[in-house]
Backbone:
C-alpha cells in the first residue's frame, strides 16, 4: 500500500505505527505556515465532498475518528451555521493530538482531543454522537473492519449518521506506468513501511507553503492493510448500519495519491486542490464516499 495515506491510526504494531505517525506529523506540519491564523480567519481544510455530506452541524455532537493533527476537526466548526457543534477528535499519535490541542487553544475553536487506539475508544467510551466522521487514510490502518463498524454503530445515537470520505482502494493497484501491476487488490497480507511525506509531494494541495526540508526522514515502519470497497461496505452493513449513499469520484482531494496525477485548474473553486488523471486516461476511481445511519 502506498505510504501516501493522510490521517493517522491503527490497532496493530502500536509501538512502531504510533511512532511512525509521530515522525510523519512533525514532517507534515513543517511544510505548513501559520495554521492557527488560517483557521482563525475562517479558513477550512475541508473539501466540498465532506461539507456537502456532513451538512449543517449546528448544535450536534460530532466524533472525528483518526483525526490526525486536528485541522479538519476544527474546520467542522465552520459547518455550524447557527451554533457550533460539540466536537471530539480521536487519534493514535501523541504528536498529532498534542498539536491539535495547541491549535484549538490558539484558534479559540473548542474541541476535545483524545489520544487513543480508535478501536479501544469506540468499544469503551460512554459518549454518544449525532455524527461520526472519518476521512482520507483511515481504515487502511486497521485490521478489523468489523470491530470498527460495530464501534461506530455503538457510539451513534439512533438516527445518527456515519460520514466517510476515503481514497479508493483500487488506487494502490495502479503502477506508476498506469498498468495494473501495483499492489494486489485482494491481498490480505499486512504492509510495513514508514508513513511518507505526502504533504511535501502534494504541495499546496494539502496546504504546504514551504519547500523546506522536513525535520527528518521517517524510517519507522507502520503497519497497514488493504480493504476492498466491497469489504468496507459489507462490514458497515454487517454491523447494523443502514447504507444511505455510496459514491465514487474520478479525482483525489488534496493528496497526490499517484505519481501520474496532475493538478486540476486552481482558478475554478469547484476543482481547486484536486488531482486528476492525465488526459486520455481511462479513469479508475480515486475516491469514494459512504454515508450510513444507525436505525
Residues:
Amino acid at each position: 500500500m502506498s505510504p501516501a495515506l493522510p490521517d493517522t491510526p491503527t490497532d496493530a504494531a502500536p509501538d512502531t505505527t504510533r511512532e511512525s505517525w509521530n515522525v510523519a506529523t512533525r514532517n507534515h506540519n513543517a511544510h505548513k505556515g501559520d495554521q492557527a491564523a488560517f483557521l482563525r480567519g475562517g479558513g477550512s481544510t475541508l473539501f466540498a465532498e465532506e461539507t456537502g455530506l456532513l451538512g449543517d452541524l449546528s448544535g450536534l455532537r460530532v466524533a472525528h475518528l483518526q483525526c490526525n493533527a486536528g485541522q479538519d476537526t476544527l474546520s467542522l466548526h465552520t459547518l455550524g451555521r447557527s451554533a457550533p457543534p460539540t466536537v471530539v477528535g480521536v487519534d493514535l499519535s501523541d504528536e498529532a493530538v498534542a498539536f491539535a490541542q495547541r491549535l484549538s487553544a490558539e484558534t479559540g475553536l473548542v474541541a476535545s482531543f483524545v489520544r487513543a487506539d480508535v478501536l479501544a475508544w469506540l468499544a469503551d467510551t460512554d459518549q454518544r454522537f449525532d455524527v461520526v466522521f472519518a476521512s482520507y487514510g483511515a481504515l487502511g490502518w486497521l485490521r478489523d473492519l468489523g470491530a470498527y463498524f460495530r464501534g461506530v454503530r455503538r457510539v451513534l445515537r439512533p438516527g445518527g449518521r456515519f460520514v466517510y470520505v476515503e481514497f479508493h482502494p483500487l488506487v494502490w493497484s495502479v503502477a506508476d506506468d498506469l498498468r495494473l501491476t501495483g499492489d494486489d487488490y485482494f491481498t490480505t497480507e499486512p504492509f510495513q513501511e514508514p508513513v511518507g511525506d505526502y504533504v511535501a509531494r502534494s504541495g499546496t494541495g494539502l496546504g504546504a507553503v514551504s519547500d523546506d526540508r522536513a525535520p527528518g526522514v521517517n524510517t519507522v515502519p507502520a503497519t497497514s492493510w488493504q480493504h476492498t470497497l466491497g469489504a468496507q461496505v459489507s462490514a458497515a452493513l454487517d454491523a447494523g448500519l443502514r447504507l444511505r449513499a455510496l459514491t465514487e469520484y474520478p479525482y483525489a482531494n488534496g493528496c497526490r495519491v499517484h505519481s501520474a496525477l496532475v493538478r486540476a485548474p486552481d482558478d475554478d473553486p469547484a476543482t481547486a486542490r484536486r488531482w486528476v488523471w492525465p488526459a486520455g486516461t481511462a479513469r479508475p476511481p480515486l475516491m469514494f464516499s459512504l454515508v450510513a445511519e444507525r436505525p
Residues 23 and 218 are 6 Å apart (CA to CA). Residues 1-14 have pLDDT under 50 and may be disordered. The domain at 14-293 is CATH 3.40.50.150 (Rossmann fold). The chain has nine helices and twelve strands.
